[in-house]
Amino acid sequence: MHQRITRGASAVSVAAAAALLLAACSSDADTEETTSPAADTSASASASADSTGDAAAFPVTLDTAMGEVTIDAEPQRVVTLGSHEHEYLYALGVAPVAVPVSWQGYENGTGPWADADREAAGATPELFEPGTTTYDAEAIAAFEPDLIVATYPNHEMTQEEYDLLSGIAPVVTRPATDSEGNATVEWGVTLEDELNLLAEATGTTAKAEEIVADIDAQYAAVREAHPEWEGMTSQVGGFYEGQAFVYAASDTRNQFLANLGLDVTAVEGTDAAWLQISAEQLDTTIGDLDSVVWQVATTPDAKGELEALPLFASLTATETGGNVWLTDTVLEGAFFANSPSSIAYSIEGFVPLLEAALDGDPATEPAAA
């Protein structure tokens, strides 16, 4: 990918960020109809059994953040535990037998941007509630997995949980290091590194190479069309418990902006997963940013609350029309997913908004997305 960003994250702040996301999405997730883990999974198992991987690639040993894990044979019954891992697998042609319910309430556990990949993989997975603070090992075991994937989990996995789940099947968490040898952080792995790890786990490395090349080309086309964006500063933020916040530079949403050519490292203090900003510090923390993408789709009242902050009008992004209000729930979901299938959807939605936001003319401030 164009730009790799790895920053350290404290466990406390990462847990807080996870709680923030889940709090914003719980009302939608609660509406999803779930299926009993003990339900018949024969259709999904049959689809998964249609091998798409290279059997000669096994056994394979992967270096993950929780230690080395060995996969002896090509997985046939994969269970995912996070919000987007199944979309990576669909892109690789792998059909997991069970995936978590969608935090946005979508059928089949994923948004419309991934439907084509899911159908091509022949995936009709069972849905289950993975748990927001602990994993339900009994429910997971009921699917009889031969591989458990948690590279982008909904909470930070403990060693005790890892050991328990490893008694059911090999567990693949995020890679221990990125392609440049730097230690990875929770929820900050690049798409390329995560995809390559899952491709190794499923024997689909050739497919992963094709996907990465296609995504690189999509990003390169945007950068070539907008050389003026190189070096311009941006960040993704929102409003929570009475304060504005921005995500870490390593967050996948900021990675997306970085791959479009923007500088997302200008805010100091975002070594943690996210940084809350007091009203009195708003101008000194994000005052000089050329653009801010305000993620407010799941918290619609946040737009008015942010605009009412005394110093909001003095932000450079406000004065130049650089604020992007992300109010479309589908685009928000694709932006958050940062999966192979969501990139094209996000690019199509964001590029026109950024064109209006970054032209320096407040009269062309982008409409809410």
Question: What features would you describe in this structure?
Answer:
The chain is of the alpha/beta class. The protein folds into 2 domains: 33-212, Nitrogenase molybdenum iron protein domain (Rossmann fold), CATH 3.40.50.1980; 226-364, Nitrogenase molybdenum iron protein domain (Rossmann fold, 3-Layer(aba) Sandwich), CATH 3.40.50. The chain contains 14 helices and 12 strands. It has a 5-stranded mixed sheet with strand order 10-9-8-11-12. Helix 7 (191-202) runs antiparallel to helix 8 (205-225), helix 8 runs parallel beside helix 14 and helix 13 (329-337) crosses helix 14. It is globular, with a radius of gyration of 20 Å. The chain starts with 10 loop residues before the first helix and ends in a 12-residue tail after the last helix. The model is unreliable at 1-49 (pLDDT under 50).
Summarize this entry quickly.
This protein has 369 residues and is an alpha/beta fold. It has helices spanning 11-29, 42-49, 85-91, 115-121, 137-141, 159-166, 191-202, 205-225, 252-259, 282-286, 302-307, 316-319, 329-337, 340-357, and strands at 60-64, 67-71, 78-80, 98-100, 126-128, 147-150, 171-173, 234-240, 243-247, 274-277, 291-295, 323-326. A hairpin with a 2-residue loop joins strand 8 and strand 9.
Secondary structure elements and pairings:
Blueprint: H1 11-29, H2 42-49, E1 60-64, E2 67-71, E3 78-80, H3 85-91, E4 98-100, H4 115-121, E5 126-128, H5 137-141, E6 147-150, H6 159-166, E7 171-173, H7 191-202, H8 205-225, E8 234-240, E9 243-247, H9 252-259, E10 274-277, H10 282-286, E11 291-295, H11 302-307, H12 316-319, E12 323-326, H13 329-337, H14 340-357
Parallel strand pairs: 3-6, 4-5, 6-7, 8-11, 11-12
Antiparallel strand pairs: 1-2, 8-9, 9-10
